[in-house]
């Protein structure tokens, strides 16, 4: 117990200069500083004693975050310049101690990362992610989180893709990781397409057939062999008065970045990895189906359906993808939607008595039925189709 007390005293003494400055600048009164010392002493003794828990560190961090928030408000209200000490360094120190002691607790790592993101401590974040991924290489959610962060906070698809590729080396059996990898690629395509449209470069995108030649992987390799994408393809360099090379953006149309070749490579490799599993194929189809506005969407979905029809022609997962395909990329308010829906209903006739297909049809059509802007006649037809499917399930 003496060693624990000595450690607690050591950490408390390190905060003495900070507290003296708070008192000198009248940010906190003497009584408040005494209360702060008492609270910190209690926390430090808990942390340094045997039997401490991750929740003890969490409560300590919450207290310091609230204390620092109060400090900032008072500094602003009192108009104090050069307030000196901030709570950020101390909070980072506590979180670092927590993750070192309980390195297996993913929740602590997430809290550490979230706090660093809130503080925009990007250099610190890089180190935290590196440590977290090194200690939890088989945690698919951690790889997804790191990849999402790279894309959302830094628009760095190269780093995001690297996280996903490395994650799949350790979590090859994680369906969630494969699907999220493809989803990130589709999100990125959507961003590139939006950028083209803003610049008035939204022409029809026709991918060269040769891009698919590189979409298959040797499953014994560590990384997926993706079509070649250069840095210029992904981030066209500045070239005109507006700081955008429009020729480079137009050239994106013929690259794998926009052609859909990368999501297709992920799909083909994943299907091999999961033994041409039809359920995974449908999950991939449904994930991509949500991206209404991608020029390459129909090409991707048609490829999925073709693969499923060749490998699992009798599966209800294949049937529902085939039925939904005509409506892909078409909004319910589009003048093309009625014709597409008729085509889907025509395909449904072959499988309307299949219980599994009936359940999937209900799930697919119910959101359309409740859409306010839908044409009344279409709503009536969709409602009738749903009722027929319900009768198949409950004769």
TrEMBL record:
Highest taxon in the source lineage: Eukaryota
GO cellular component, one term: small-subunit processome
Family affiliation: Belongs to the UTP6 family.
GO MF annotation list: snoRNA binding
Protein's UniProt name: U3 small nucleolar RNA-associated protein 6-domain-containing protein
Predominant cellular place of this UniProt entry's protein: nucleus
UniProt-listed InterPro entries: HAT, TPR-like_helical_dom_sf, Utp6, UTP6_N
Domain U3 small nucleolar RNA-associated protein 6 N-terminal per the UniProt entry, residue ranges: 12-80
Keywords, in A-Z order: Nucleus, Repeat, rRNA processing
GO terms under biological process: maturation of SSU-rRNA from tricistronic rRNA transcript (SSU-rRNA, 5.8S rRNA, LSU-rRNA)
Annotated organism of origin: Aspergillus leporis
Location(s), subcellular: Nucleus, Nucleolus
SUPFAM superfamilies given in the database record: TPR-like
């Amino acid at each position: 117990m003496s060693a624990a007390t000595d450690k607690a005293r050591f950490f408390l003494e390190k905060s003495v200069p900070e507290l003296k400055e708070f008192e000198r600048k009248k940010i906190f009164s003497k009584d408040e500083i005494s209360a702060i010392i008492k609270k910190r002493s209690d926390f430090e003794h808990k942390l340094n004693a045997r039997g401490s828990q991750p929740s003890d560190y969490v409560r300590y961090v919450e207290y310091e975050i609230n204390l620092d928030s109060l400090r900032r408000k008072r500094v602003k209200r009192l108009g104090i310049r050069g307030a000196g000490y901030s709570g950020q360094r101390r909070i980072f120190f506590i979180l670092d101690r927590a993750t070192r002691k309980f390195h297996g607790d993913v929740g602590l790592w997430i809290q550490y990362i979230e706090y660093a993101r809130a503080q925009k401590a990007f250099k610190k974040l890089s180190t935290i992610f590196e440590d977290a991924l090194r200690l939890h290489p088989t945690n698919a959610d951690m790889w997804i989180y790191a990849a999402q962060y790279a894309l959302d906070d830094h628009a760095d698809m190269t780093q995001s893709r690297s996280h996903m590729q490395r994650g799949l080396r350790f979590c090859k059996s994680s369906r969630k990781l494969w699907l999220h990898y493809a989803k990130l690629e589709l999100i990125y395509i959507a961003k590139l397409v939006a950028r083209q449209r803003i610049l008035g470069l939204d022409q029809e995108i026709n991918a060269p057939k040769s891009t698919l030649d590189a979409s298959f992987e040797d499953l014994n390799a560590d990384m997926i062999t993706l079509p070649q994408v250069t840095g210029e393809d992904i981030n066209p360099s500045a070239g005109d008065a507006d700081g955008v090379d429009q020729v480079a953006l137009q050239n994106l149309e013929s690259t794998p970045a926009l052609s859909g070749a990368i999501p297709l490579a992920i799909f083909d490799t994943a299907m091999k990895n999961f033994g041409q599993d039809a359920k995974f194929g449908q999950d991939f189809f449904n994930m991509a189906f949500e991206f209404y506005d991608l020029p390459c969407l129909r090409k991707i979905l048609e490829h999925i359906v073709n693969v499923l029809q060749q490998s699992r022609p009798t599966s209800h997962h294949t049937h529902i993808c085939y039925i939904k395909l005509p409506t892909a990329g078409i909004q319910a308010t589009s003048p093309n939607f009625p014709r597409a829906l008729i085509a889907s209903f025509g395909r449904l006739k072959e499988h309307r008595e299949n219980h599994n297909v009936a359940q999937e049809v209900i799930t697919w059509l119910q959101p359309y039925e409740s859409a306010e802007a839908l044409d009344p006649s279409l709503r009536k037809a969709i409602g009738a189709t749903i009722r027929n499917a319900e009768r198949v399930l409950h004769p």
